[in-house]
Structure of Secreted protein:
Amino acid sequence: MNSVLTSARWQLLMALCFLAGEVQLALAEKLFHASLASDEIDKLCEFISNEFLMNGIEENFEPNSYGLELELLLDAVNRRRSQES
């Protein structure tokens, strides 16, 4: 298992990529193998951010528990960016 993502976060990322279009699953696979380009990391972050905006916040604009998990996933994916430098 990729050290950047827990099993639960990996499954969440796969689900988000699948919802974005089955073709996008390749991005999750590339993350797993640490072979993502910066623009591909941006794409994954976009999927996560969109999901956060649609389902991760409460009416008072505070993150719900799902939103908090999405924030952790976003941090883990972004961590890859600093590892490529």
